[in-house]
Amino acid sequence: MKLPVVSIVAKSGTGKTTLLEKLIRELKRRGYRVGTLKHDAHQFDIDREGKDSWRLTQAGADTMLISSPAKVAMVRQNPEGREPDVEELASAYFHDVDILLTEGFKKSGFPKIEVHRQARSPELMCRGKEKDPALIAVASDTLTDKKTELDVPVFDINAASEICDFIEAEFLS
């Protein structure tokens, strides 16, 4: 079975991470193994300057792994200008999960749940100027009264259990 991937998308500051936290907790409570992949459009650095792992990466290691009894972390240098796509990352690192939830990747063709807060933007990103065919649902703080106006299900932004019911029915049954 191919790994199901669902992207949580929204404008910055809308609550993607907060919703993802709730979805992960609920899916774990239901017994699923959950992977997450966050897109960062900027350069980020998880190593702290001066730490051994940082020093090894600074010395030129293309891949640096830290391992302990509790977890493994990896810093891998991408070839310049070549960010791996979700499919590559999923096949390389998420072979042992039931579902992969991504944060961001709004330009991907993966099924998307858009997080919407009226105070952040009155218009949906995936149903604005362009209609994104990958949109499968909306989690909103105000649009629940407009369910009939949209062509996808609309959930209350705080209804993680209902959103998980939807994800489970669509991707995990």
Amino-to-carboxy terminus distance = 12 Å
CATH class: Alpha Beta
> Pairing-aware structural class of the strands and helices?
alpha/beta
What overall form do the CA principal axes indicate?
A: globular
**What topology, given as strand order, has the largest sheet?**
2-5-1-6-7-8
Reported CATH architecture: 3-Layer(aba) Sandwich
Compute the number of strand runs: 8
Radius of gyration: 18 Å
Strand-and-helix sequence, N→C?
EHEHEEHEEEEH
Question: Main sheet?
Answer: 6 strands, parallel
Which spans of ≥5 residues are poorly predicted at pLDDT below 50?
none
Alpha plus pi helix count:
4
Oligomeric state of the chains present here: single chain
Q: State the helicity in percent bands.
A: 10-25%
Structural domain tally: 1
Identify the notable features of this structure and list them briefly:
single chain; 173 residues; alpha/beta; 4 helices; 8 strands; 23% strand
Would you write up a description of this structure?
It is a single chain. This protein starts with a strand and ends with a helix. The chain has helices spanning 16-29, 52-58, 86-93, 160-172; strands at residues 5-9, 34-38, 63-67, 72-76, 99-103, 112-116, 135-140, 154-156. The radius of gyration is 18 Å and the shape is globular. The strands form two sheets. It has a six-stranded parallel sheet, covered by helices on one side. With 173 residues, the protein is an alpha/beta fold. The chain has one domain: Rossmann fold, CATH 3.40.50. It has four helices and eight strands, in the order E-H-E-H-E-E-H-E-E-E-E-H.
